[in-house]
Amino acid sequence: xxDGGGPARGSRAxxxxxxxxxxxxGLGLAIFYLWPVLQTAYFSFTEWGPFGGHTWTGLANYxxxxxxxxxxRAVLNTLTYTALGLLGIPVAIVFAALLNRPGLRGVSLYRxxxxxxxxxxxVAVAMLxxxxxxxxxxxxxxxxxxxxxxxPNWIADPATALYAxxxxxxxxxxxxxxxxxxxxMQAIPKELYEAASMDGAGRVRQFFRITLxxxxxTAFFVSIVSVIGSLQLFDLVFVMTxxxxxxxxxxxxxxxxxxxxxxxxxxFVTNDRGYxxxxxxxxxxxxxxxxxxxxxxxxxxxxxV
Amino acid sequence: xxxxxxLGVHAVLAxxxxxxxxxxxxxxxxxxxxxxxxxxxxxxxxxEGRWDNYAKVFDLLPFGEQFLNTVVMSAGRVAGQVLFxxxxxxxxxxxxxxGRNLLFGLFLSVLMVPPQLFVIxxxxxxxxxxxxxxxxxIIVPGLFSAFGVFLLRQFFLALPRxxxxxxxxxxxxxxxxxxxxxLPLARPGLVALAVLTLLWAWNDLFWPLVxxxxxxxxxxxxxxxxxxxxYQTDYPVLMAGSLIASLPVIAVFVFLQRxxxxxxxxxxxxx
Amino acid sequence: xxxxxxxxxxxxxAALLASACGGGEQAGAGATAQxxxxxxxxxxxxxxxxxxxxxxxxFTKSHPNITVDxxxxxxxxxxxxxxxxxxGGAAPDVFWMNGPNFQLYASNGVIAPxxxxxxxxxxxxxxxxLYTYDGKLYGLPKDMDTxxxxxxxxxxxxxxxxxxxxxxxxxxxxxxxAALTDPDKGVYAVGAQLTSFQEYQYxxxxxxxxxxxxxxxxxxxxxxxxxIEGLRFWTDLIAAKQSPDLKTMTDTAPLQLFEAGKxxxxxxxxxxxxEFGTNDYTKDKVDVAPLPKGEKQATIIHGVANxxxxxTEHPAEAWEFVKFLGSGQAAGLLGKKGPIPAYNGTQQDWVxxxxxxxxxxxxxxxxxxxxxxxxxxxxxxxxxxxxxxxKAWTGxxxxxxxAADLAAGMNDLLAEE
Lengths: 305, 271, 417
Known about the structure:
By secondary structure, chain B is mostly helical. Chain B has 15 helices and no strands. In chain B, about 55% of the residues are buried.
């Protein structure tokens, strides 16, 4: 059972130490994470009163879930956001490749600029973009007006809201992914590029023939993390739609509502916690299916050396 | 080998860097305007020194307390995770005990589950303990992290065994080996975990929003969301509030830039 | 390390307990030694936070063993967080209650009825009725509010439109609206706000002769042609571009548009006095007029009451505080610095606090005021109002159809109550 070498020595004492070392985190995870998963699963078969207390209702929440148009919309919005959010990966790869150019000056300055949104509080990011997207007074439409374009109410218009949200998502995550890709690219052996230059391959060809295949395992990792993260989108939407009643009066609400936001509303606004538990179990299934799918598809595009 | 001067590269990078930063500049400008001048058409680009937007933020919400709550919460989570995760990670990497792989698998399984699944029962626990609206509520569940164990275990596995063996021959027990030898060696890993935990803790919204509803017990991100609740679309005030709330972590980032970048780069290395 | 293991074990027990009893009671952190008691007091209005603290301090003067901690939760989160707090056993000892939420809280037994016999004739009857459930009074009215038209005198002058007269009608309002709208300057006559039924739709519905809910609380009024007339009042204004469309009002709320000089009129409550009196732009540019008369004259009257949590650790002290807040003394303090006190005879102070405005308007309109429509689970059909009427406001669905859909949905919800 062990992956280490060395002779077994004082193994009983060592085992006790081992348990002692993992005890704090082990108990913490058991109480606050593993046990709650089981409880949530149980709650998904119960109905809650407005001020607490619950009764067993069997599959009622799940049948309600399947017929709830709000759930269908939220799942569709979330999937669309997730799929479009993947566009951030090629963007990050291209910028990482530009920054990885040997001898380039000012790399740390550029890197800082890209990284700034990553360390900014998502609630603040959402407020900031809500203001930039303002239909009448937002910076974006004011700039567009200069070139004679009458911009829409980006996040209040059902036609544009979700795409506007994707842009914010990419803007705030591209710096994170860029760092990971940059680390991946720096691990590529220099000899490969030297050999390619000898063969007369230009930078662009080198990028496609060497860089891209070599970072594909990293891209796979990033895509897994990105999909899981996107499926849990909450902060941006919660702030950008406005809270409470204002959110439901947003004409684009039906295009912005996500699964986790629906979960929040049912669990902590209407206190319909049994149903909320069912919603979040559905999210678990969604994440599991998409992750398995990604692992299946990786054979087609990921190159392992 | 024709090495052209990378002017084109600089142009692309400079323009896109500007696009990344421009929203922040506009945020600062707006935070110093009145509502009337912020909604003027055509817009004005100069800030006006309307500091009362900042005063309004402090009027409405106990930002001082919320700042302190956020600092204590972040510090507590960072300290707890660095200590507890490194202990568990060391055990999983180096010590042998029955059921080790099974337990590690259990730890990892937590990583596979979306965190929203924990929220309702965690809330029940807090409520039973009488911990709603308390600092413990926002700190304690964040002391434990499967991710941290996973990340640090990679670090310990990569460390050479020779020094440990030497210490062991000198009669050092597991705790001393862990504390005086392994921890110093794993410093980059600890810093990476600390930096990431700080970032996530500071910006965390969902759990603090749910569990601490008393404004004096809220964190900055939940308080900021509440500010929007009050001031709706009074953008100058909102810009002032969002700036104050996110500035501390941005400042930390500027000072610890290298550590942040390395920390994130580490999460990308496949285990 | 052992310490942490032990406390972890304690947590484990707690976790098991949590699942066993599903969130039971818990000790609050109020009582300390020597009979000193701290009461928590939940409020939602930031502009009243200061006067609430003054009242708390005043109360402590006469009750030295009781201190009151005023907890402000902004309006949009207030009810969400209150529900969560109640189910977690962490509700404030005393808190503000409003009409739409009252029956839900009373019928679920999470607020305590008033045991002592008190004289309710000092409050407006509409408000006493609002906070009576099953024949028992649960809260003492704190304040009252009615709705009027706040208008921007500067914009009226610029458009050469006369200020609204006290007896103006829908026709007068529409004429003024047309004259005040100035697309070149980005100025609209009024914002047809969708989210505040109390200041907008409910008023015009009753003015048109319609109703929101039948007196027995069993039937929706939204299928009534007159009710629809009251809704069309607003959708027509949007269609005529005399009000911003819903998208614009989502990006920038009517209150901010009014405070930036982009709206000539704002239908608002008497509670807006605090806001408009301190805002740099509005404080010397606005005044108030009664709502225009449709088929009838109507304004919605509502008031906040102070109620006690049924689970408070200090019921006697909480009641002392509620009684104090409902007294003439407290009302006198409130009237000088806050909203209109509910205590009859103290309201003139409130009018005198702002001699520059015609605040008497709000008191005069009590004569024809209509109570805020509520039922046992008001929040449920209020969500339906928004969901269905959003479509009418965007123009996606004709207002008749949206109202018919709403009536059907609302009737289903009322049947479940």
